[in-house]
UniProtKB/TrEMBL annotation:
<keyword id="KW-0436">Ligase</keyword>
<feature type="domain" description="Mur ligase central">
    <location>
        <begin position="105"/>
        <end position="293"/>
    </location>
</feature>
<dbReference type="Pfam" id="PF01225">
    <property type="entry name" value="Mur_ligase"/>
</dbReference>
<keyword id="KW-0067">ATP-binding</keyword>
<dbReference type="InterPro" id="IPR036565">
    <property type="entry name" value="Mur-like_cat_sf"/>
</dbReference>
<dbReference type="GO" id="GO:0005524">
    <property type="term" value="F:ATP binding"/>
</dbReference>
<feature type="domain" description="Mur ligase C-terminal">
    <location>
        <begin position="333"/>
        <end position="451"/>
    </location>
</feature>
<dbReference type="InterPro" id="IPR036615">
    <property type="entry name" value="Mur_ligase_C_dom_sf"/>
</dbReference>
<dbReference type="InterPro" id="IPR050061">
    <property type="entry name" value="MurCDEF_pg_biosynth"/>
</dbReference>
<dbReference type="InterPro" id="IPR004101">
    <property type="entry name" value="Mur_ligase_C"/>
</dbReference>
<dbReference type="InterPro" id="IPR005758">
    <property type="entry name" value="UDP-N-AcMur_Ala_ligase_MurC"/>
</dbReference>
<dbReference type="GO" id="GO:0008763">
    <property type="term" value="F:UDP-N-acetylmuramate-L-alanine ligase activity"/>
</dbReference>
<protein>
    <recommendedName>
        <fullName>UDP-N-acetylmuramate--L-alanine ligase</fullName>
        <ecNumber>6.3.2.8</ecNumber>
    </recommendedName>
</protein>
<dbReference type="InterPro" id="IPR013221">
    <property type="entry name" value="Mur_ligase_cen"/>
</dbReference>
<dbReference type="Pfam" id="PF08245">
    <property type="entry name" value="Mur_ligase_M"/>
</dbReference>
<feature type="domain" description="Mur ligase N-terminal catalytic">
    <location>
        <begin position="4"/>
        <end position="100"/>
    </location>
</feature>
<dbReference type="Pfam" id="PF02875">
    <property type="entry name" value="Mur_ligase_C"/>
</dbReference>
Length: 487
């Protein structure tokens, strides 16, 4: 039984458990597409939490709860009264993945896209992997956030929040970057580095670690890992844009699809050419990590000294995986095209951290160099805005216009005394406005698009945030479609 089954994490685990033969039920506070999806898989999913969902007559073997569920939850209390084991999502993940060769994708940013790309690439090679991703993948059946395979390989997006990845035992792990995020539980950047340092210690004996050379936090993690285990240097690999990386992306250039072409080398030798349909250096690094993981997975039985000269079969697999990356269709809410009307295209993205905002805008500017880029940003949690405010303001420099809404609280109380207005005021060099309510944002945007200047005939609207900002794009498009029809 899963509490919080409508979330991206537990819904995927419920699907995997059901496929493994468990009888799964669950509940969540509100109806959602996730609940509908798990019901379609034969899982009983209730709306609302009630002690009546757990009875002595139908006693579950275990109750799995998300980190958002408090101990006072009536179902948790009833389970404990009946002596039923209650475990966190992290504990259940450890149990669920233990029989597999686990490929764990961790990092402060980029986990979802990287793990989704990895699953797609491996499946293109005929590897029938199981995968659990933190977003809905367009190339998975029913655009789900999980796919169930028959092999012994498991691809997992591995989250650092609340130490969720510490119960894992990966065969191969990648850390895309390490940066101060989840400021509600990590008081500073050093505490984030500490949790990642603990994570890399969870590798199974003989396991392989892949780290990004482009991120200072990841480089610090490499140094710390070698301090702890100097004899394991040959089990550590790096990827990046510079010559010191084992796996390197070179000759980056924009392509006709609005994405990026680049060449991949390994230890200075050509490995594969990639033509991504997605823009942004961050997506290049994500794809590079995937190719490295494919090579390391296929080649893991060989010692490091043999890696510089890969077998022809490994190179062939890497090139086939590179072709699959060229057809990657993305993940929902990751630079997702929502729709368009004459003069306007609307994109939706989950970016809610300064680094993510900056990367998304850099990608948008690469893809649309001659268009006006308008941004609606909904800050996510008061704690994040308060602690990262100095970093947020310069993240919007690639935009032509920014609207900042009020903060999406996500259950937090505003003990910090901050507002979205503080961010709008701090953004310099860009036309920035504070509009608190989403309804008013929709009205303003629809009006401004209809009355835009002639030099703003090609507008790209980016809706950024991890809250309910995703509602804005479809409503703007609906209002404009209605107005254009009537006009």
């Amino acid at each position: 039984m899963h509490r919080g089954i409508g979330g991206s994490g537990l819904s995927a685990l419920a699907l995997v458990a059901s496929r493994q033969g468990w009888k799964v039920t669950g509940s969540d506070l509100a109806e959602s597409q996730m609940l509908i999806s798990v019901r379609e898989a034969g899982i009983t999913a209730h709306v609302g939490h009630s002690a009546d969902h757990i009875t002595d007559a139908a006693r579950p073997d275990v109750v799995v709860v998300s980190s958002a569920i408090p101990d006072e939850n009536p179902e948790i209390k009833r389970a404990k009264e009946l002596g039923v084991q209650v475990c966190k999502r992290s504990e259940w993940l450890g149990l669920l993945t233990a029989p597999y060769k686990l490929l764990a994708v961790a990092g402060s940013h980029g986990k979802t896209s990287t793990s989704a790309m990895l699953a797609v690439a491996l499946r293109s090679l005929g590897k029938d992997v199981t995968a659990v991703i933190g977003g809905e993948v367009f190339q998975f059946p029913n655009e789900a956030n999980a796919v169930i395979g028959s092999s012994d390989v498991f691809v997992l997006e591995s989250d650092e929040y609340d130490g969720a990845f510490l119960d894992l035992r990966p065969r191969i792990a990648v850390v895309t970057n390490v940066e101060w995020e989840h400021v509600d539980i990590f008081p500073d950047e050093e505490s984030v580095r500490t949790i990642f340092r603990s994570f890399v210690q969870t590798l199974r004996p003989g396991g392989v670690l892949l780290l990004c050379n482009e991120n200072p936090g990841s480089q610090t993690l490499l140094d710390a890992y070698l301090d702890d285990r100097p004899s394991l240097r040959r089990q550590i690999f790096t990827y990046g844009l510079g010559p010191s990386s084992d796996f390197r992306a070179e000759e980056l250039r924009a392509n006709a699809r609005g994405g990026t072409n680049f060449a991949v080398t390994y230890c200075g030798r050509p490995l594969a050419d990639v033509s991504l349909g997605f823009a942004g250096t961050h997506m290049v690094l994500n794809a590079l990590a995937v190719l490295a993981l494919v090579v390391l997975h296929i080649n893991e039985a060989r010692p490091r000294s043999a890696h510089a000269r890969l077998d022809t079969s490994v190179v062939r697999a890497a090139r086939q995986a590179a072709q699959a990356l060229g057809t990657f269709q993305g993940v929902k809410r990751r630079f997702e095209l929502v729709g368009e009307v004459p003069g306007l295209k609307v994109y939706d993205d989950y970016a809610h951290h300064p680094t993510e905002v900056r990367a998304t805008l850099q990608a948008a500017r690469q893809k649309f160099p001659n268009k006006k880029i308008w941004v609606v940003f909904q800050p996510h949690t008061y704690s994040r805005l308060a602690k990262l405010l100095p970093d947020f303001a310069p993240a919007f420099t690639q935009a032509d216009r920014v609207i900042v809404t009020e903060v999406y609280s996500a259950r937090e109380k505003n003990v910090f005394g901050v507002s979205g207005k503080d961010l709008a005021t701090s953004i310099k060099g860009v036309r920035a406005t504070f509009i608190a309510e989403l309804d008013d944002v929709v009205q303003r945007l629809a009006s401004d698009v209809l009355n835009r200047d002639l030099d703003e005939d090609n507008i790209i609207l980016l809706n950024l945030g991890a809250g309910d900002i995703t509602r804005v794009g479809p409503r703007v498009l609906s209002d404009l479609t209605r107005s254009l029809r009537l006009g």
